[in-house]
Amino acid sequence: MTVDVASRIQRVQRALTAAGIDGLMVTPGADLRYLTGYDAKALERLTALVVPAAGEPWLAVPELELAEAQRSPAALSGMEVLTHGETDDPYTVAFAPLRRAATVAVDDHMWAQRVFALQDLFPDIRWRTPGRLLADLRMRKGPDEVASLRHAAAAIDRVHRRMGEFLTAGRSERQIAAAIAAAIVDEGHVRADFVIVGSGPNGASPHHSVSDRLLQPGDCVVVDIGGTTIDGYCSDSTRTYAVGAAPAEEVAEFYAVLHEAQHTQCDYAKPGVTAESVDRIGRKLISDAGLGQFFVHRTGHGIGLETHEEPYIVEGNTLVLEPGMAFSIEPGIYLPGRYGARIEDIVVTTQDGIERLNTTSRELTVVDG
Ligand code: ZN
Ligand code: ZN
Ligand code: ZN
After folding, report:
1. H or E element: which one contains 181?
2. More exposed terminus of the chain, fewer Cβ within 10 Å: N or C?
3. Are strands 23-26 and 103-106 parallel, antiparallel or unpaired?
4. Could you say which ligand is closest to the alpha carbon of residue 329?
């Protein structure tokens, strides 16, 4: 996808003006990639985008990274690139044109070392975080971003469809995770970001990653996987599998509650409803089945250039959903010491509902084992 740098910069400048902020400084990370298309490395040498509320923005980069920066969508669309040499003070070079500003925001993930250096050099400026300014832009996805997320979702779905190759009784979670990580790359990501294989009792720990436990016939296995694609957008999908044999009646009943909750949340979510209400409707179903105490996390998180970003689908978030918001719907039920299950789809809000980007079966799929 080609990043429309000019329109993103314009939107951020409008937001800066509205918030009474004179400028914004952004170091490498998802915010920088969003605004410039530049996937710059986060290194000790300073790379920064500086956006004044009015006028032309610029990129400041180490001299030795000039060639890389010039290939970025920002530079290709005409943004000025300033360089600092090994013995220059990078903050002076990067920031001098804005030194008379009153209030400047820095990105939320800027290293503390840099924030303090800026404060020391420009003590009269009021430095602040951007608040909701960047999150408000990034959580409203354009059609090009939705297309990238759809592409990422299709890639992770191909990995889930191959799960029968990986989940075998007698193999360890760790061995399985290594094979899945390779498949995540093979199926269309530039890297695997995480692989959770929670078998049997390990499935009851939502943030379990992997262990040396060997899969047993009859295990429930929670597989939560994701990666990043070439254009920077992330995938994230969870399915729960049964190894070798159909699950016990008790497990099937518990899973049916979860499946119904996830399905109900997906049917309910649409523009005009709040993020917290999507959480509530699923949590109520699970609570009504007597399992509420075992659903120990929020329903979901936004996704885009980062796996976890706004909007968070959680009690207390009164944000009203709008078309173009992308987030996960991933209720889970975890019985400590026994087993757990989670179903996770990435969805995008449409004009009148949501589109589920992940489309593999949500049943408790039995793999041969
Ligand atoms: Zn996940
Ligand atoms: Zn997730
Ligand atoms: Zn269903």
Report:
1. helix 173-186
2. N
3. parallel
4. 2
- Residue-averaged pLDDT of the chain: 96
User: Tokens 């509205």 appear where?
Assistant: 18
Read off the pLDDT of residues 298-315 as tens digits, 9 standing for 90 and up. 999 999 999 999 999 999
| Amino acid at the residue 324 | G
Pick among 3.40.350.10, 3.30.70.100, 1.50.10.10, 1.20.1070.10: CATH of 5-137 = 3.40.350.10
> Ligand 3 mean position to 259 CA, how many Å?
6
**CA 116 to ligand 3 center in whole angstroms:** 51
Section 36-44 average pLDDT:
93
pLDDT band for position 66 (cuts 50, 70, 90): very high
Length of the chain in residues, anyone? 369
Strands of 80-84's sheet in order across: 80-84, 58-62, 48-52, 23-26, 103-106, 126-128
pTM over 0.90: yes
Ligand nearest, relative to CA of residue 356: 3
What are the sequence ranges of the domains in the chain? Answer: 5-137, 143-367
224 CA to centre of ligand 1 in angstroms: 5
DSSP summary character for residue 213: P
**For residue 207, is pLDDT > 90?**
no
Q: Which amino acid is at 293?
A: Q
Distance in Å, CA 249 to ligand 2 centroid: 28
Give the model's pLDDT for residue 160. 98
The neighbour count for residue 293, using CB atoms within 10 Å, is: 10
Residues with CB under 5 A from ligand 1 (ion): 224, 236, 238, 344
What is the reported pLDDT for 245? 86
- Pick the closest to residue 136 from 325, 6, 278 (CA basis): 325
> Relative to the alpha carbon of 265, which ligand is closest?
3
Which ligand places an atom closest to the C-alpha of 224? 1
Q: Is the pLDDT of residue 369 over 80?
A: no
Could you report how far apart the first and last alpha carbons of the chain are, in Å?
Answer: 40
